[in-house]
Structure formats: structure tokens, C-alpha cells
Amino acid sequence: MALTLPAHPDPLTDRIHDSGLLQELAHGLGGAFHYLLPGRFDANLAAFRRALTEAGVEGRVYYAKKANKASVFMDRCAAAGGGADVASLGELRDALGQGVRGEDLVVTGPAKAVELLRVAVRQGALLAVDALDELDRLLTLGDERPVRVLLRRYPPDQPRSRFGLDDAQVQEALERCAAAGDRVRMEGFSFHLSGYDVQPRADLAGELVELCLQARTLGLQADRISIGGGFPVDYVAADAWDTFLAEQEPGHYHGRKSFAAADFYPYHSPVAGADALRAILAARPAGSAASLAERLRQAGVMLLLEPGRALLDRAGSSVFRIQGVKDRTGYGILTVDGTSLSLSEQWFDSEYLPEPVLLPQGDRENGPYEACVGGASCLDSDLLTWRRIRFPARPRVGDLLVYPNTAGYQMDSNESPFHELPLPPKVVIDQDGDRPRWRLDR
């Protein structure tokens, strides 16, 4: 018996699916595509800002561009006066081209190229410094304006992390910043922390607040910290998720493939998005009698955050057209007009678990049908969904499969024109009253 794991109900996407628009787009575009809902991005950004205001904390939200390459989200970010987190020269140029101001950019990533550092400094961007040699390169660029930096802290509780400065390196970096005088504006600290637990993030944030106070004794500005991303998205209902984790086993997958539950993204989270930020702000850092929000206010420290996935919650889906149905004993294999490179989770030996929705052409009366979903390439490993999905009817060639809520990290992290197959285009859908209207992402 197939396990079911549907995404949370979404009336807006239901209306789009019922409108016939997706079938027209599949016909006109000639294959797979992604659709984007910029209004959802706007609402998610507003929710994070509201959480900061409610806590009485001064803060900035930076959209992490690596979560989705679409121009429309950077455009919406610029229109709302938001910031952007970029990690390459291409991402920085795109952000500037979409109207994000240089001073509203934070540049992350390890061992940044000199060309990226030079342009970022000229544009007045804030740079997260990951190593002492990177700090030295910045201090020798010789630009007229001071270099704006955050010192990235190594997370002591994550010894496998390759990011950040350890205790001794932090102290050395502070001394070099102080000695540099007006050439550098050391604005604070940042960290890159894996996982989604609230308390470790609050603990490390509390430590950064104390580092800011220490840095000020050296005459440094040190008035902000960045806690990065790590705000989960709640894709599916709790009971369905718990049942799936408890019962999933190789018999539920094509070829009896085995997945470890620990390797799945946590597709259900009881506290997600802006509520996760609220929980972090309300938590007490280790050794503190006050909440993180209180410590930030007391120390006069601004909070920076860089959500990617959480700003894209329900802001887009991926659409594939079925081009073949093959029967196997007990289940079928659907082949679609795209590849699993357009659902990036599968290429990390994991699975994108919110299940696809079948949009059939015409009425069906032949009952449920179990099938996995394969891509159009010649690779045995090219499966968009290894799990045997229980569809309400037998799919047919020409039907559409819609993978819900894929805007965050799924659409383009590992895209490739393998076999010279075209990359799925991105279509922006705007609501004009009850009528959806579309345009290609620039």
C-alpha cells in the first residue's frame, strides 16, 4: 500500500490548476516549466519583518538568492526595499541589475574571488569575512570608501563545518580591523549553522552579541549580527509526516530503494518561517537570564537574517507533462518531459517527498493507480519520485504532474541541459482579480 504525503491545501494553486492555464502553458512552451507566485514572496518577507517589529528588535531581512535564480524574486526584494544575500559576482550583478542597492547587499561564501571583493567594496556591500587571508585581501584593495565587514564565527558545536574563524582567529581579526583604522568598518559578526533547531541558533547568536560588546572596547562599530538562514518550511501535515517516517521501507519505492529517515528534509515543522524567527528571539541564549530579543535590545545590536527557502514558501511549483506510462508488476513507471535535475533533492541521494498532483485530460473512471516518476534521460538513477505514488486514476500521455511548493532550492540548484533537453522555463503568474495572468521570468 502506497504511503501518501500531500502538501498542505492551497486554494490559490487549486484555482490555477482548475483554470486550464497550465495545460495552455505546457502546450505553448512545449514541455516542462516552473511557475512562480511573487505575491507569496511579498507576504513571506512582510511576515519576517513583522516578527522583528513585534519583538522590538531592529533588523534586516536579506533574500538568499541561491535558493532560486528567478529574476522576479530579486525584483520583488528591491521593490520592497529588502536586502539580498549573494555569493558570486554573477549574483551580485543580477541583484544590482534588479534594483537592489549596493549597501543592501551582504556577500557571503568562502574564499571569495578578488573580482567579487573589488566590486562589492565599490558598491558599499557588507562582506562576511570567512578567513584571515580574505580579510588581508580586503584591506589591500585600496578603495576610497571603508570596507564593510562582518567576521564569520566558526560554530564550535559543529566541528565538521568548514566555515568561520575560531576563537584565536576572531581575536586576531579584531586586532587587524582595529589597526586598519578608517580603511575598515567592522560592523559585527555572522555565522553559518546547519540544521533547524532553535536553541543552538539562539545560543550562538547570544555569543555574537557578547563578541560585539568586546569588539567595541577596541573602538570598532560592532552593532549587528547575522544568524543566516535555517528557517524551516512546513510542507505537509504532522500526522502524514509521522506516519511516513514510521512506516516507509524499501517496498514503497521503485527497485526497493532504501532511504534513511535522517536523510530527508524535515518536510513537517511545527514551527516554521517567521514563527521560527519568533521562537529564536524568544529563546534564552546559554548563560543568559534574558531572551535573545532582550539581549539585542540591551546591547543595541541589530539582527540580520538571510532566509532563502522560507521566503519562497508556496511561491512556486514545477510542472511536467507525462510522455509515457509503463506497467510493472504491482505498479507503473511514468516518464515525464524533464529530468530529476529540476528537482534537486533527488541528486543528494534523497527524495522530494511532497507528492505530485495529477492534472488529467478528460474524465477517468478506472480507479487508483500506483506509479513512480522517471525522467526523460537514459540514466537509471533519473527518477523524480522513487516512491510509488497512489494516483486517483491511471495517468495518460499528455496529462500534467504538478510538484507543489518547489521554489525553494528545488527548481534550479542542479539544473543541466543533459541530452540537450531544454531547461524548464520559469513563468510568473500574477492574479488579476480571479483571473491568473502569466509572463516569462526575465
List the helices and strands and how they pair.
Blueprint: H1 11-18, H2 21-29, E1 33-36, H3 38-54, E2 59-64, H4 71-79, E3 83-86, H5 89-97, E4 105-107, H6 114-122, E5 126-129, H7 132-139, E6 147-153, H8 167-180, E7 184-191, H9 198-216, E8 224-226, H10 238-247, H11 273-282, H12 292-299, E9 302-305, E10 316-328, E11 331-336, E12 357-359, E13 369-374, E14 383-391, E15 400-403, E16 426-432, E17 435-440
Parallel strand pairs: 1-16, 2-3, 2-9, 3-4, 4-5, 5-6, 6-7, 7-8, 8-9, 11-13
Antiparallel strand pairs: 1-10, 10-11, 10-15, 12-15, 13-14, 16-17
* Unreliable residue runs: none
Which second-level CATH architecture of the largest domain applies?
Alpha-Beta Barrel
Alpha-carbon distance between the two ends: 44 Å
Alpha carbon gyration radius? 23 Å
Q: How many separate helices?
A: 12
Q: Quickly count the domains.
A: 2
Q: What's the pLDDT, averaged over the residues? A: 94
Shape: elongated
Number of strands: 17
Strand content: 15-25%
Give the biggest beta sheet. 9 strands, mixed
The CATH class label of the largest domain is: Alpha Beta
Under CATH, the topology of the largest domain is which? TIM Barrel
> CATH H level of the largest domain: which superfamily?
Alanine racemase
Structural class: alpha/beta
**What is the string of SSEs from the N terminus onward?**
HHEHEHEHEHEHEHEHEHHHEEEEEEEEE
Helix content: 25-40%
